[in-house]
Specification:
Blueprint: E1 10-13, E2 30-36, H1 40-43, H2 46-57, E3 60-67, H3 73-85, E4 90-95, H4 97-109, E5 137-141, E6 153-158, E7 163-168, E8 176-179, H5 189-208, H6 216-236, H7 241-260, H8 265-276, H9 282-299, H10 304-313, H11 323-335, H12 353-364, H13 377-387
Parallel strand pairs: 1-8, 2-3, 2-4, 4-5, 5-8
Antiparallel strand pairs: 6-7
Helix pairs in contact: 3-4, 5-6, 5-7, 5-9, 6-7, 6-10, 8-9, 8-12, 9-11, 9-13, 10-11, 12-13
Length: 389
């Protein structure tokens, strides 16, 4: 019955909630408005709507639009410099997972000296303690995937060293998060699928984690049920607002489940993949290795009961054996059109498998401790090899 929970974030969840931004007590009078280097929030009008809400609140802003997929420490440092140069007193992150992840690191580096990697734990990071509190963070999610809108973690890449490592601190939790499913209508189908599976795996990893607890389990199962039932609909029709809402719920609630315990080595392994291959979307990489990753624990009978519970949550009401989860997962991938993703399409070679396995442990080895049983480097490389296409 033990768990630790720290939730300082005020969450506004639901259709039309963006319209309430201007009524909130925001943590300052000048924001660094952090967005991606793409065009989506500009073209679909979301950026203009946010600007109107900030005007209503009497908040000035400076736009920083340099964040890319699998964000690097260089763009974090650039954005942090922008915040300092313009004397911004909080970060408003508007976007998908890359923007939300980056906001945590930008917040810290806007107030602390040195380089981000001075404070990163793992790999070549120097693991120094932050000297000063970061800038307050407000998040507005435009996709459903990472759950970073309500937690203090972001994953940043160091391209010089081929490392992709989680960075965070409880003091960097957002003070306000807005999750409005209406903002997600225009996300393309394949990215809806990739992001939805990222959200799903946050919850399935929590379920098999050896740290799963009395509170994280029912929340994770609720999220799994909503994603499995509604993600194919959201992929098929982006305007299906009921489906968008359910997937957004599953994604955001994962931000809570991950604060209650931990994901597992599946995320470490994918971070290794995209650390070397920057164009690989995180969710796509997770999908590529997922079947073999979970099969490893099914064959080890590491947590049979957890797999049965998840299979039932995914719609197999009569599930009675752990293999049923693998069946449910394969069926969901097929229903979302992502059942034949190939590592080779992103330049990954089969000879890299052991390199990726070692990188996963060296950079984010802490997540291996959450696995329900031991996984050696050889085991990890074997999963990559069996998943390879």
């Amino acid at each position: 019955m033990e768990f630790n929970l720290f939730t300082p974030t005020k969450l506004l969840f639901g259709r039309g909630k963006l319209n309430e931004l201007g009524k909130q007590e925001l943590p300052g009078k000048k924001a660094l408005l952090l967005i991606s280097n793409g065009k989506s929030v500009k073209m679909n009008g979301t950026l203009d709507r946010v600007a109107t809400q900030l005007d209503k609140a009497g908040v000035a802003y400076v736009i920083c639009n340099n964040i890319h997929e699998n964000p690097s420490k260089e763009v974090v440092m650039e954005a942090a410099f922008c915040a300092k140069e313009n004397v911004c007193d909080f970060i408003l992150a508007l976007g998908g997972g890359a923007v939300l992840d980056s906001a945590v690191a930008v917040s810290a580096m806007a107030t602390n000296p040195g380089d981000l990697w001075d404070y990163v734990c793992g790999g070549t990071g120097k693991a120094q303690l932050l000297q000063y509190p970061g800038l307050p963070i407000v998040t507005i999610a435009t996709t459903s995937g990472t759950g970073s809108e309500i937690n203090c973690w972001g994953v940043i890449s160091n391209r010089e060293t081929n490392e992709k490592i989680g960075f965070g601190n409880p003091n960097l939790n957002p003070v306000l998060a807005i999750v409005d499913p209406e903002l997600m209508r225009t996300v393309p189908a394949k990215y809806t699928a990739y992001q939805g599976f990222d959200a799903l795996f946050h919850n399935t990893e929590v379920m098999i984690s050896r740290f799963v607890n009395v509170l994280s389990e029912p929340i994770a199962l609720s999220a799994i049920e909503n994603i499995a039932k509604h993600l194919p609909r959201a992929v098929k029709n982006g305007d299906d607002i009921e489906a968008r809402e359910a997937v957004a719920y599953g994604s955001t609630i994962a931000g809570l489940t991950m604060q209650l315990n931990s994901t597992t080595a599946e995320h470490s392994m994918e971070h290794a993949m995209s650390a070397y291959h920057y164009d690989l979307p995180h969710g796509a990489g997770l999908i590529m290795i997922s079947n073999e990753f979970y099969r490893f624990f099914v064959e080890k009978h590491a947590c049979d009961g957890q797999f049965v519970k998840m299979a039932r949550a995914m719609g197999m009401k009569d599930a009675s054996k752990p293999e049923d989860f693998l069946t449910a997962l394969a069926e969901l991938q097929k229903a979302c059109g992502v059942d034949n993703l190939k590592m080779s399409d992103y330049g990954i070679k089969k000879e890299e498998c052991m390199t990726l396995a070692r990188n996963a442990r060296e950079t984010m080895g802490g997540l291996f401790t959450a696995n329900p049983c031991e996984m050696t480097d050889e085991d990890c490389a074997g999963i990559f090899e069996r998943a390879y296409k």
